[in-house]
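Page 42, continued from yesterday. The earlier attempt failed because a stray header line got pasted into the input along with the sequence. Redoing it now with the clean sequence only.
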Amino acid sequence: MQELLTNPYFGVACLVALIPITAIVFGTVTNAWQKVRRAEIEAALKHEMIQRGMSVDEIRQVLEASAKGGSRHKKRCGDSSNRSDWPSSVQAH
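This time it went through. Structure tokens are written below.
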């Protein structure tokens, strides 16, 4: 055991193994945290809409619009030359 600890390559090997493991754990934790946070935000939005007295159909329309808007935003960010799917308020600029 003593020979292993005095070997200079042992420290390098530990770092080579530790860095990817740390990155994987960090990525997994932040991904899970992001999903939880989005669920919290969506729940708060639903709660607020219920408090305002919105109907189920109105809430569904808002949630569907926000879901479609997210994918439309990703599409727009990739290619800003196609403005046919942008809202008219944005096209005017």
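Notes: The radius of gyration is 24 Å.
Reminder to self: strip header lines before submitting.
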